[in-house]
Amino acid sequence: MYSETKRNFKIKKDAVILAIESSCDETAAAVVKGGRDILSSEIISSASEHVRFGGVVPEIASRAHTSAISLVVEKAIKSADLTLKDIDAVAVTYGSGLLGALLVGVSYAKTLAYCLSVPLIAVSHIRGHLAAGYTVDKELTPPFIGLLASGGHTAIIRVTSFDGYEILGGTLDDAVGEAFDKVARIIGLAYPGGPNVERLAKEGKNVIPLPKMLKGEGGYNFSYSGLKTAVINYVHKKEQAKEEYSRADVAASFQSAALDILAEKAIEACGEYSLETLTVGGGVAANGYLREKLIRACRERGIKLVLPPKPLCTDNAAMIGAEGYIQYLKGNFADMDLNAEARIKEVGERS
Ligand SMILES: Nc1ncnc2c1ncn2[C@@H]1O[C@H](COP(=O)(O)OP(=O)(O)OP(=O)(O)O)[C@@H](O)[C@H]1O
Ligand SMILES: [Mg+2]
Description:
The protein is an alpha/beta fold and 351 residues long. The protein has helices spanning 2-6, 47-50, 58-79, 99-116, 125-136, 176-186, 193-201, 225-240, 247-272, 288-301, 310-313, 318-329, and strands spanning 16-21, 26-33, 37-45, 89-95, 120-124, 144-149, 154-161, 164-170, 277-281, 304-306. Helix 5 packs across helix 12 (318-329) and helix 6 (176-186) packs antiparallel against helix 9. The two termini are 25 Å apart. 49% of the residues are buried. It binds adenosine-5'-triphosphate and magnesium ion (MG). Magnesium ion (MG) binds next to helix 5.
C-alpha cells in the first residue's frame, strides 16, 4: 500500500524534513527546511551510561534509544514550532552503525512516514557528516574537498556533485577518532577519549618524538596504527623503568602527530584539484587544535573553509536532514522493507 502511495509523492523545493539519527550513543532528531535551514536539532545522549565500561555498550545504547526516541522527536517538532502535519518527509540513518541502535531509528521513522503518508528517506551516516556543511554555508555547492574525520572514518573526498563523490584517500588501518579513543585509554583518560585528550593536551607540549605516519607519502591515505603503537611503547617503557613522564605531553604530541597530517593532506588536495573550498565533518572536526590549524592554513592559501560548529561535527540529526534532502530531490525514497545496515561499504555507495 505504501509503495503505491510512494509513486504519487510530490517533490517540494522547500520541503520540511524530519530527520532521525540513532547509529551510536546519541538519539537525535532535527527539522531541516529546504536542506539548508535547521529549524531545530535535538540530542539525547546515553554517553554517560557508557563511561564506566570505557566505550559504547551496544545493548545499553539500543535500550537508551528506545526510551529517548519519542521524546527527542517531540522536542524537535516543538522547538521548530511545527506539528507533525507540517512534515513533508522523514529521513533516517540506516547505516553504518550499531545494528540494534540503528533499528530503533529505522523502525520509528518507518512508522512515522507510513502514518503521515510522506516519503521515507534512507540516509548514510557518513554522507550525513559530509552534508553538514550545506547547513553552515547556504551557498556551498560542489565541487569541493571534504575532510572526514570521525570515530570510524578518516578520508579525503572530492565531492563532485550533490550526489557524487570520489574518495581520494582513506585510512589504511585505524580511524583518527578511534586512535584518539585508544590513546586516551593508554594514558588513563575516560571515555569519550577525544575531548579528554584535547583537554589534557592544552597543559602539555609537543616534545615527544612520534612517527610522522604517511607524511609526504601514501597519496591521500592515512595510517594511525603505527602512531598508536608508538604511544603505547613510550608509555610502557616509562612505566617499566619507573620513570616520570608527562601525560599532558603525550596527549599534546599525539594530537599534533594525528591531526597535522589531516590538515596538510586536505589542503594539498584542494591544490591538486584546483578547488577553492574545503569542508570538514565528523567528531574529530570538533577538535580545537585541528580547527585552528585548518583556519590558519586555509587563510594562508586563500581556501574557503566551511567549518561546522562543534555540535554539527559530532553525531546529530541535522546533517541527516541535509543529506536526506539531496536524496529527496532525486526522489530516492525507501520502502517499508528498509532495513538497518551495520556497514555500508563506502561513502557514496549503497550496498
Ligand atoms: N574534541 C575532540 N578531539 C578529538 N577527537 C574527538 C573530539 N570530539 C570527538 N572526538 C572523536 O570523534 C569520534 C566521535 O565522532 P563521531 O560521533 O562522528 O564518530 P562515530 O559516529 O562513532 O563514527 P562514524 O561517524 O565514523 O560512524 C570519537 O572517536 C571521539 O573521540
Ligand atoms: Mg559519526
